[in-house]
Amino acid sequence: MYSLKLLMQKCKSEIRNLNAGDKMVFENLYGLLALLSIIPLIIAYLLKPKPRDAYIPSLMFIMSIEGEMAKYKSTLKKFVKEPLFLIQLLVLIFFSFAIASPFINLMEYVHSDNTVIIIDGSASMQSTDVKPSRFSVAIDKAKDFISKKTSIILAENVPVEVLREGSSKDAESILDTIRPKATTTNIGDAILLGKEILGGKGRIVVLSDFANNEGTDPIIIKKMVAASGIFIDFVPIGGKGDNIGITSINIGNEKYGFTIRNYMPTTKTIKIIVTTNGKKTTEKEITLRPQYSDFFALQNIGKGITEVSIEDEDDLEVDNKVFINVPEVKTRNILIISENKTSPLKVAVSAIPNTKVKVLRTDPPEFKNAMVILGNIKKDTLVTPDFSNFKNYVESGGNLVIMASEDLNLISPPLLPVELGDISTSGGTVKTEIINEFTKDINFGTVTKYFKAKEKKGSVVVARAADNSPLIAYWSIGKGKVVYFGINYQWSDFMYNPSYPIFWLQLTDWMTGFSNIREFNVKTGTISLSYGKVKTPSTTIYANGNILLDEVGMYELQNKKIAVNLVNEKESDISAVPQNSSDYKFATLPLKVKKDLWQYLLLIAMGLVSYELFYLKSRGEL
At the topology level of CATH, where does 332-512 sit? Predict the structure, then answer.
């Protein structure tokens, strides 16, 4: 038994070392031990009682001769004469081999009924170095991979699923409608999405120029996904294209810088044309050496939409123009109601650009301000202690900041998003709870005293004291907002912190809806939150949440115009080609596919068992 075990282990080791090719091998060698069941069958037939011979005198001579001849015949003839024995022998053999799970590796072309097609939708795929464009060629090739169930992913800087497990007709229709975008690409994330769609079995085909990629290296993702049993092919598109493009924009204080790069192997002279609100304002020529970048600047280009374009014949048009939106900036009137005419609060707010600050000792009958700040006030400071004028102001869209002061808990404004208690002198470090538009990059320092407080239902707490009392909280009332700012400059060291004026700038911008010029000028691939009608450079859509700004040009969303530009040095480099690696090569070669044989052996064995029953019945033994 021990030697038999060693023999089996040796056989298994030898089979693992075989280059399977088209040879039949066994997955479960121990299953061959079932062949030992043949031995009892043979013994049973050998011990089977022989029929008794009766000798008739007239035939005795002939039968004696036959008896002598039988001595020289093989004993196996006894078994051949018995069909039932042969049937049972074959049943045991086929069952034994089925248990051993035999299989062969065949070289076959892979045809999957479930395919995910990933098409690179980045800006470089608009290149015309192959006609009519890289993207058009990719679409034509993608149609060759359509299967019974086809999913299609457009690989932008985030993967966009355009079809999930559609029919071949659906897939062909979708491929005829999708267009390349002006973003970078993220092939790795697209492959992982494809793997999720397949659920473990099928094929992924990636069609791309593999020129530039965000995220994880596609080769690493490819090998990881292939190891899970999914067939994945990379189909390279395009070659080395010629291009000159605008690769960066630097927006400063009324000064705008642009970088233009020549990716060609020869020196080129190009013309730059600048138009503002449809009128040409500047035209100049520059000469660029091969693989060289140059910089030019514009100043005081004026309010509105400015377009900078280069006149050049190259293979990529999408980076030949950029847009800049310089919005109209209105002066914001801010009212501070305080017993102190001068304070660190006034200094910080007055430093905010495009802002006019006024300080009053009491509240006016009505407010015509973008924002009102209640600073250091006393119990008898306000003319309307019931806050009815403040309530009307906020509900109609006004913005109110209520700052902690000595008598604030005695006044207890009903508009506060917190319920105030007594003043605590325990002090401590201010804990920021939420990082948002007005708390980012802000260090609130420490407080020496503060109001013990509890947030009201519906309010948002942004910062807390050591005992979890809210120090900064806000909520919405009607169309406006109310902020409780519990860090009085007399009760903390925050006023000495460089973050102090930045905080008031960010808070004022957030409350009044003022946007920095950079928020009107973004790169393609930016995700923006929008609801309702959105005008893109090519069409009009209706948004209900996040939208991907993936075209170069002007977007209009929520009454705001946004200039969107590619400006990506790597994406503009269409001369880049993937490494000379088999990972980036696609060929219609057959793959080694495992074919199991045990099912067929089991079917044969079952068929023999059925025939055995039929045979026994025909002999009258059933």
Answer: Rossmann fold (3.40.50)
